[in-house]
Design brief:
331 residues, alpha+beta, 16 helices
Length: 331
């Protein structure tokens, strides 16, 4: 628990957090007197821990709810924060609770050697089914593995922050990704976050190495081939990138990041009619500014007057002044 709090608190460490865990442990020890059976035991924990705990899966609040110190203060958390809380208390209570990782998700497992089942803490403690794994083998996390996940979560937060500059975001993202890999070199998500940060820094060699390692560790995760395709596209290896995109589409079709990379590759190969067709098909299902820009560029490359209609549509749908000026400047 101490390692988890230090990993995620970034200066907010307080002995009071461990005291709060100790108090919770004492209360639960009293609650569990006379309780037998795995599910009955977990029901007691849920009754004490989940009434005020909510799953926050998007927006600015996603980060704090991942942190054990924040979960202790607010009794609210996402999959990482809630699982950290249960594992930390399970250690105090002698319960066989483990954290289990899937790509971009963590859940709880009870495993006493005879009884084994998985629990979705972000859904009021619902028991998970095998079908929810989607054919991906979950990874049981050691203590170091869970701390690694916390660092990965921090790295992703820094990388995807919409309000911070690259000068502050990227070094912090790389630092946390490196810490994550120091705790668990097999953490494929940490390799992917590192690759994405290196892409933005222009280090395509380092990004390629990180993406390749992620592919070795998680061959069925669509994010790994998507990241590799992005690296190859930026390096001008468009045909190779398209091969990886086809592989990603086989497991997770229609990802916006993959569509953008595909459009970049097709444009780089001079296949502008395919850019228009692919972008049009995607825009029929959802609006995306980047895809619409790619369609506009392809129409300009093909000649004719179609780009004028598209530029007008772009200005209407996304009326920010910079959008229109960007389109005119490119033309």
């Amino acid at each position: 628990a101490a390692a988890l709090i230090v990993a995620d608190s970034e200066g907010r460490w307080s002995p009071g957090h461990l005291d709060a865990l100790d108090r919770l442990g004492m209360l639960l020890r009293e609650d569990l007197v006379g309780i037998e059976g795995a599910e009955a035991t977990l029901d007691v924990l849920h009754g004490r821990l989940l009434p005020h705990s909510i799953s926050i899966t998007s927006g600015v609040e996603q980060g704090p709810s991942s942190f054990l110190y924040k979960v202790l203060e607010e009794r609210a958390g996402n999959c990482v924060g809630l699982t950290s809380l249960y594992v930390a208390l399970g250690e105090r209570l002698g319960l066989p609770l483990k954290a289990v990782a899937l790509p971009r998700h963590v859940f709880l497992r009870w495993d006493d050697g005879e009884t084994v089942f998985d629990v979705e803490l972000t859904d009021r403690g619902r028991l998970r089914t095998h079908d929810e794994l989607g054919g991906v083998a979950p990874r049981v996390l050691s203590k170091k593995g869970l701390v690694s996940v916390v660092h990965t979560n921090r790295a992703s937060m820094w990388l995807d922050s919409p309000v911070l500059s690259d000068e502050s975001r990227l070094p912090n993202a790389l630092d946390h990704a490196s810490e994550a890999l120091a705790y668990d070199p097999r953490n494929e998500e940490a390799h992917l976050v590192r690759a994405r940060a290196l892409i933005r820094l222009g280090d395509l060699t380092g990004a390629t190495a990180s993406a390749e390692r992620a592919l070795e560790l998680a061959p069925l995760d669509a994010d790994a081939p998507l990241t590799m395709a992005e690296v190859l596209a930026l390096a001008g290896r468009f045909d190779d990138a398209l091969t990886w995109l086809d592989r990603a589409d086989a497991t997770s079709p229609g990802e916006a990041s993959g569509v953008l990379t595909r459009l970049r590759c097709l444009a780089g190969l001079g296949r502008h009619e395919e850019v228009v067709a692919s972008a049009t098909g995607f825009l029929e299902t959802q609006e995306h500014r980047g895809v619409r820009h790619a369609r506009l560029r392809a129409l300009v490359s093909l000649g004719g007057s179609g780009w004028e209609e598209e530029l007008g549509r772009l200005a209407t749908r996304v009326p920010e002044r910079w959008t229109l000026s960007m389109g005119v400047a490119e033309l």
